[in-house]
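Design a sequence for this backbone.
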């Protein structure tokens, strides 16, 4: 127990201090004024969405799931990245990411959300191993008569996969972008340290909301909205530190915005003393006071509102300019006894506490999305939004293939 608490404290201290410094630096790197974050077409255009799928979601490392979901050997779970369905598979300590398509007739291979064992297509009974290699093709010698090249082409499509602790990332297309290129060492270290502290149990749910996925992440980088929008929910438990700082000198040290600094690990507020959180009555006391946020570019957000006792994750997958699929997870710390009979209750409490906060954010995003469709106005943002503005500039370069 002492080691868990010690490691968690070092995780929060190391990750926050280092990445926050970089966060502050990059936030003020470019111009100090800008009329908007992105032009309105970037939130409503089908062409922009297709560019996002092609040049962003298929070329960069995207969070696909937790190792918790495929803990058993030969287990698999169905996921989605952009338009593509993938199967995350675990076999003998190795992880695979396969396209959920049978290479024979390009039929969807698995209809179930999860399962265990090798894959068999219910169209012509082709079967595949956990690594995607073809296992058997019925009547091959009599009917198909594939040569060696065709035999190799009969394997399932496989994508690059990296497990950073319990966090699985997938990259669809080959590129020179490594996980170390995309994320700062402080963030990678924090994910690995945290993974050692997590319970096996987790809660999850899925939803579809009517707003462009980028609006949510602009909202999460907006330090002024929590005291207002969340005044009746999270604002009663956390004293959010709005960022009014003057431009720090350190921003001059950076020559240009870098991909890894588009992600951040920051402390955004302190737990209000004397206020009981959603879990305080059934969970052990917090060992580190504060509200911490992980924002991993482009579409991953994780937060702990209670200093590391519990974590919530949201992952946004755009399926339309004004529609995105959102996967949610809740996980808790091993500092709570793994045999605790209240573990399911702890997760359920966290899920119930999360819902109203998410609704406040998502309803705000949906109202912005509705207005974007009928107004000709662009946004009128101020100095404190520089981090969003800089991320948007990098994002546009990625879409136009000028970045990496």
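Sequence:
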């Amino acid at each position: 127990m002492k080691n868990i608490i010690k490691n968690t404290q070092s995780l929060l201290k190391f990750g926050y201090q280092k990445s926050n410094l970089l966060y502050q630096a990059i936030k003020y790197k470019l111009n100090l004024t800008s009329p908007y974050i992105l032009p309105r077409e970037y939130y409503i255009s089908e062409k922009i969405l297709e560019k996002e799928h092609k040049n962003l979601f298929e070329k960069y490392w995207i969070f696909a799931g937790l190792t918790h979901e495929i803990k058993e050997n030969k287990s698999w779970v169905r996921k989605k990245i952009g338009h593509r369905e993938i199967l995350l598979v675990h076999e003998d300590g190795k992880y695979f990411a396969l396209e959920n398509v049978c290479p024979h007739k390009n039929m969807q291979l698995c209809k179930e959300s999860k399962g265990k064992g090798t894959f068999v297509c219910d169209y012509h009974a082709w079967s595949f191993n956990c690594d995607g290699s073809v296992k058997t093709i019925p009547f091959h010698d009599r009917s198909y008569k594939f040569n060696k090249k065709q035999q190799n082409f009969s394997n399932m499509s496989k994508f690059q996969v990296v497990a950073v602790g319990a966090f699985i990332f997938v990259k669809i297309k080959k590129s020179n972008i490594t996980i170390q290129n995309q994320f700062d060492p402080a963030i990678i270290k924090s994910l690995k340290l945290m993974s050692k502290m997590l319970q096996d149990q987790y809660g999850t749910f899925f939803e579809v909301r009517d707003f462009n996925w980028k609006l949510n992440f602009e909202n999460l980088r907006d330090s002024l909205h929590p005291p207002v929008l969340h005044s009746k929910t999270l604002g009663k438990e956390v004293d959010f530190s709005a960022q009014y700082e003057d431009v720090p000198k350190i921003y001059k040290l950076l020559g240009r915005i870098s991909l890894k600094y588009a992600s951040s690990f920051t402390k955004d507020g302190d737990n209000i003393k004397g206020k009981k959180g959603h879990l305080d009555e059934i969970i052990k006391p917090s060992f580190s006071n504060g509200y911490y946020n992980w924002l991993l570019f482009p579409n991953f957000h994780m937060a702990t509102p209670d200093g590391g006792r519990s974590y919530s994750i949201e992952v946004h997958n755009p399926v339309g300019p004004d529609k995105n699929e959102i996967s949610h997870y809740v996980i808790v710390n091993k500092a709570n006894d793994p045999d605790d009979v209240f573990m399911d209750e702890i997760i359920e409490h966290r899920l119930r506490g999360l819902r109203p906060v998410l609704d406040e954010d998502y309803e705000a995003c949906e109202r912005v999305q509705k207005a974007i469709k009928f107004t000709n106005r662009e946004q009128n943002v101020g100095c404190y939004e520089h981090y969003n503005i800089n991320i948007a500039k990098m994002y546009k370069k990625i879409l136009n293939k000028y970045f990496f």
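The mean pLDDT is 84.
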